[in-house]
Amino acid sequence: MSSVDQLNFSVPRRTLLVTGGAGFIGANFVHHWCTNYPEDRVIVLDALTYAGNRSNLAHWEGKENFQFIQGDICDRSLVDQILQTEAIDTIAHFAAESHVDRSILGPAAFVQTNVIGTFTLLEAFLQHWRAKEQPEHFRFLHVSTDEVYGSLNTDDQPFTESTPYAPNSPYSASKAGSDHLVRAYYHTYKLPTIITNCSNNYGPYQFPEKLIPLMCINCLLGKQLPVYGDGQNIRDWLYVGDHCTALDLVIHQGLPGETYNIGGNNEVKNIDLVQMLCQLMDELAVDLPIRPSQELITFVQDRPGHDRRYAIDASKIATQLGWTPAVTVTEGLRHTVKWYLMHRSWWKSLLSKQYQEYYNKVYLS
Ligand code: NAD
Ligand code: TYD
């Protein structure tokens, strides 16, 4: 499913610190990097919150070029120590509190990890970069979201890199704050930072409370498929493998101080996406308690402040770095549904008491 063929340049060896590498996109990125650049070293720093899962990286454990460190990005002395002892030259920063619904229930953790954590990494990396006499190849890649741009109406043009920030949820506000800090460290100190703002990712290893895995799993459990509001909200869906290919290009060829939007060219209404998932489940799953799955669709109370539409104009990364998404939503959803069907023990182990408590708070209160 990946389009690594797009990456036909010569690459220097790197030592990467991947923050949040045990989460959804981070783990896919580690798989991508370790597979394509076995000469590089990858150090993962992850606090293993509810969303982090060390088993996502099991394939690389014990390999010479891979190391996992459990810890918090807000822990400055730990970050300093890793940067120095591992001789890190590249930070790929994924660690974050990432779920809008959780940010509505408890925003404090979002400010702590997303703002203070990013600030801690920037300070530590600045000191480290200066101590090494500011090598040119150092990079700080900050992985952010299109949600910082706010909400679009149906007829609005998609977000470009110069769309003004207008975040509407505690999650997107905290990501916007971190983006501003990352930008400021380039402009003030010339620290070689790059920001990417991407649309909704989907694919293997996504935690079961996000829309696509939640719907797949609820179909298999015969539970309601809760669609917020009227189901007409629009998201642009980006296959996670395509996202990793884009981040790879940005690290190797992106310009410090720049922002790149990354989108999937796949705008879909939520209700249409859920219908597509139901059809795939009916076709691919042999053991559904309720069939057809669409009987489980239930419209529930809308999320407070629910953004209506996100859409990305990804022409900058297309023209400047030659990246375009390779996976259509039809292919990507089929692959993803098959993955959840074949990895039942993976997601079943995540349906803990805490998951149930979270679920009840969001859907049953
Ligand atoms: P995720 O919630 O699946 O994973 C986050 C990871 O960060 C987890 O492994 C968690 O344990 C770790 N983490 C959280 N707090 C930490 C801390 N204080 N110190 C160290 N590690 C910590 O998130 P994801 O979906 O993989 O998203 C990764 C990044 O991409 C985030 O920055 C998110 O804002 C951004 N993003 C995600 C999407 C999406 O659709 N998932 C879209 C746009 C941008
Ligand atoms: P989500 O995966 O939480 O991503 P985000 O809010 O960051 O876009 O949700 C994607 C869309 O699906 C969003 O419009 C909210 C909607 N949604 C539902 O309708 N029901 C659900 O149970 C969930 C989790 C999301």
From TrEMBL:
**What cofactor(s) does the depicted protein rely on?**
NAD(+)
GO molecular-function term, one example from the UniProt record: dTDP-glucose 4,6-dehydratase activity
Concerning Pfam families, the annotation shows:
GDP_Man_Dehyd
Q: Where is the NAD(P)-binding domain?
A: 17-335
Q: Does the keyword Nucleotide-binding apply?
A: no
Swiss-Prot/TrEMBL keywords: Lyase, NAD
Q: What is its EC number?
A: 4.2.1.46
- Catalytic activity reported: dTDP-alpha-D-glucose = dTDP-4-dehydro-6-deoxy-alpha-D-glucose + H2O
Q: Which InterPro entries match?
A: dTDP_Gluc_deHydtase, NAD(P)-bd_dom, NAD(P)-bd_dom_sf
Which domain of life does this protein belong to?
Answer: Bacteria
Q: What class of enzyme is it?
A: lyase
Under the heading NCBIfam families, the entry gives: dTDP_gluc_dehyt
Provide the family line: Belongs to the NAD(P)-dependent epimerase/dehydratase family. dTDP-glucose dehydratase subfamily.
Q: Which PANTHER family match?
A: DTDP-D-GLUCOSE 4,6-DEHYDRATASE-RELATED (PTHR43000)
Task: Kindly provide the name given to this protein in its UniProt entry.
Answer: dTDP-glucose 4,6-dehydratase
Q: Which gene encodes it?
A: rfbB
